[in-house]
């Protein structure tokens, strides 16, 4: 038996396979954040329209959040090096909480736009620090499971949020803003109180090597993870979220409520698949999980354009949900493998790749759908996912195990392992 395979054959429940406390705390935080965000999503466009603006201006409010995430993500690695993941995570969440609460009392469109942009800054801080903490506080052989647990928190919260938002909007159009601020305040406080100040999945856990950034950027696993994340952001937020609601109404002739039903079914399937996907990533490997996930996602997203009825569409979206479970775990685990202890900046680059897809995807997909039709718009998303497949095939067949080393201090930002 080759020595490199042995860590993946440990029996479940052994010390090496236990998830550290940080993973469970981050899963709880993810749930709180996703519930609040899901509450806000249905009412934000309506509230923006109440200021008498056109649909483009409404879209700008939504895009401002993602745009500021993209702009600010590169600076989050430096903040993490200076202050640690725990503090950056909490401050980022509080920034989103305060900006969301103030957005609920906005008296003009301009105020709402600026406050949503500020929320994007806090979201970047939270996302990069939480992902960095998640990946550097677990062992190599359980990174897939850890990423899956974190993803499940977002998925469950995302399913519960819109239902709560519908009830709150019946009280007031601004009530969801305050609910979102409250759930974020809870999430930030949980992070400050329950996350430990140093990364330690076990007392005797080996220290992760600090790899030079240029070496991380040349890592084939890291490159593949970023390309997969770009394709996933483009397809999920650009093609699926922007075009499927229109396709349901204009092509299939169904009521808009069927879009919610279809997305809910896909989210349930994805949540169920996250656990098995995470274990697959840890036992079989990152490379096969990413090849399988991108191939399946490409086939599913292309098939959406040719769905003859709502039943087939729901089935295809559920297949896409299965693929999304793999793509939410394997690339993140690959980034953790490649980055070692230097999590902040590589994680920021990884996060930005998805943001680029989420910003450009809706614009390009909408343009293509108007000019040449839905099949071409969906085919472009599938093609980007297949680029991720090709990059994943080039990955090493077995990710190297981190070598136990003494972690040196970073001369520019302090100890890279310091978490707060």
Structural features, described:
- The protein is mainly alpha-helical and 420 residues long.
- Helices cover 74% and strands 1% of the residues.
- The chain has helices at 21-40, 44-49, 55-83, 85-103, 109-136, 143-171, 175-194, 213-218, 220-250, 257-283, 286-304, 310-327, 330-339, 344-371, 374-393; strands at 409-410, 414-415.
- The protein has a two-stranded antiparallel sheet.
- A hairpin with a 3-residue loop joins strand 1 and strand 2 (414-415).
- The longest helix has 31 residues, at 220-250.
- The protein is globular and about 55 Å long.
Provide the fold topology.
Blueprint: H1 21-40, H2 44-49, H3 55-83, H4 85-103, H5 109-136, H6 143-171, H7 175-194, H8 213-218, H9 220-250, H10 257-283, H11 286-304, H12 310-327, H13 330-339, H14 344-371, H15 374-393, E1 409-410, E2 414-415
Antiparallel strand pairs: 1-2
Helix pairs in contact: 1-6, 1-7, 3-4, 3-5, 3-14, 4-5, 4-7, 5-13, 5-14, 6-10, 9-11, 9-13, 9-14, 9-15, 10-11, 10-12, 11-12, 11-13, 11-15, 14-15
Q: Specify the number of helices.
A: 15
Q: Can you summarize the main beta sheet?
A: 2 strands, antiparallel
Mean pLDDT, as a whole number? Answer: 84
The residue ranges in which pLDDT falls below 50 over 5 or more consecutive positions are 1-14, 198-206, 399-420
Strand content: under 5%
Gap between N and C termini, in Å? 41 Å
* N to C succession of SSEs: HHHHHHHHHHHHHHHEE
Percent helix = over 70%
Which structural category fits the helices and strands?
mainly alpha
Q: For the largest sheet, list the strands in their spatial order.
A: 1-2
Shape: globular
Number of strands: 2
Rg value: 21 Å
């Amino acid at each position: 038996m080759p020595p490199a395979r042995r860590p993946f054959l440990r029996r479940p429940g052994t010390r090496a396979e236990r998830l550290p406390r940080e993973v469970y705390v981050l899963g709880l935080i993810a749930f709180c954040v996703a519930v609040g965000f899901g509450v806000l999503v249905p009412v934000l466009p309506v509230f923006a329209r109440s200021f008498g603006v056109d649909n483009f201006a409404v879209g700008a409010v939504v895009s401002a959040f993602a745009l500021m995430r993209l702009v600010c993500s590169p600076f989050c690695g430096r903040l993490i090096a200076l202050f640690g993941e725990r503090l950056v995570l909490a401050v980022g969440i509080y920034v989103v909480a305060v900006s969301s609460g103030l957005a609920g009392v906005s008296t003009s469109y301009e105020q709402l736009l600026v406050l949503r942009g500020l929320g994007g800054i806090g979201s970047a801080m939270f996302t990069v620090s939480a992902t960095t903490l998640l990946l550097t506080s677990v062992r190599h052989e359980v990174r897939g499971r850890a990423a899956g647990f974190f993803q499940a928190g977002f998925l469950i919260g995302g399913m519960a949020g819109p239902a709560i938002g519908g009830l709150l909007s019946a009280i007031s159009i601004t009530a969801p803003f305050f609910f979102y601020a409250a759930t974020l305040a809870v999430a930030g406080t949980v992070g400050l109180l329950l996350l430990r100040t140093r990364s330690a999945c076990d007392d005797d856990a080996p220290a992760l090597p600090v790899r030079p950034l240029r070496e991380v950027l040349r890592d084939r696993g890291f490159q593949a993870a970023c390309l997969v994340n770009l394709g996933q952001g483009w397809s999920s937020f650009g093609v699926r979220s922007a075009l499927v609601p229109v396709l349901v109404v204009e092509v299939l002739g169904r009521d808009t409520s069927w879009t919610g039903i279809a997305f809910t079914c896909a989210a349930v399937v994805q949540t169920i698949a996250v656990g098995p996907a995470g274990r697959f990533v840890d036992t079989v490997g990152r490379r096969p999980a990413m090849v399988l996930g991108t191939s399946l996602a490409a086939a599913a997203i292309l098939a959406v354009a040719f769905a003859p009825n709502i039943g087939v569409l729901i089935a295809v979206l559920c297949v896409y949900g299965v693929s999304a479970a793999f793509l939410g775990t394997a690339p993140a685990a690959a980034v953790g493998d490649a980055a070692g202890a230097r999590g902040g900046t590589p994680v920021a680059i990884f996060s930005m790749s998805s943001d680029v897809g989420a910003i450009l995807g809706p614009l390009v997909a909408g343009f293509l759908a108007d000019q040449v039709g839905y099949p071409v718009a969906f085919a472009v998303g599938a093609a980007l996912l297949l680029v991720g497949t090709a990059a994943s095939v080039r990955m090493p067949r077995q990710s190297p195990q981190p070598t136990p080393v003494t972690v040196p201090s970073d001369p520019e930002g302090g100890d890279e392992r310091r978490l707060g």
